[in-house]
Amino acid sequence: MTQFDPRALLSESRLGVLATIKSDGLPQLSPVTPYFDRDAGVIYVSMTEGRAKTVNLRRDPRAALEVTRADGWAWATAEGSVTLIGPGADPHSPEVEALVDYYRAAAGEHPDWDGYRAVMVSDRRVLMKMSVERIYGEALR
């Protein structure tokens, strides 16, 4: 049996649950599509300005992200400090470029970059960059 590596699970997972801290101190959970840059030790998530998770992170830039293996028998959690980039007001702004870089790393080339850029501006998309400070997890089988 090989040893479980929570970093590997984070790297391959494209669905996770992001935990942020509400103003009353309770957790707020959101399903997200993370991308873990294992070499840099950074998790990226695209989100919308004004949503609960974004508001929470602007107030308290700490978060945790949990992913599970498809069969449910392994999980990994990453915790860290967050920086938010955006939203961008121009399709070619540095904030939108950061979202383009995120998309390329997570999913490859987009069939319509001009359309993607326009949507990032109109949707007021923000890129979360979490510097991973701790990773832990377990494989139950």
From TrEMBL:
<dbReference type="GO" id="GO:0016627">
    <property type="term" value="F:oxidoreductase activity, acting on the CH-CH group of donors"/>
</dbReference>
<keyword id="KW-0560">Oxidoreductase</keyword>
<dbReference type="Pfam" id="PF01243">
    <property type="entry name" value="PNPOx_N"/>
</dbReference>
<dbReference type="InterPro" id="IPR011576">
    <property type="entry name" value="Pyridox_Oxase_N"/>
</dbReference>
<protein>
    <submittedName>
        <fullName>F420-dependent protein</fullName>
    </submittedName>
</protein>
<dbReference type="GO" id="GO:0070967">
    <property type="term" value="F:coenzyme F420 binding"/>
</dbReference>
<dbReference type="GO" id="GO:0005829">
    <property type="term" value="C:cytosol"/>
</dbReference>
<dbReference type="InterPro" id="IPR012349">
    <property type="entry name" value="Split_barrel_FMN-bd"/>
</dbReference>
<feature type="domain" description="Pyridoxamine 5'-phosphate oxidase N-terminal">
    <location>
        <begin position="7"/>
        <end position="136"/>
    </location>
</feature>
<dbReference type="InterPro" id="IPR052019">
    <property type="entry name" value="F420H2_bilvrd_red/Heme_oxyg"/>
</dbReference>
<dbReference type="InterPro" id="IPR019920">
    <property type="entry name" value="F420-binding_dom_put"/>
</dbReference>
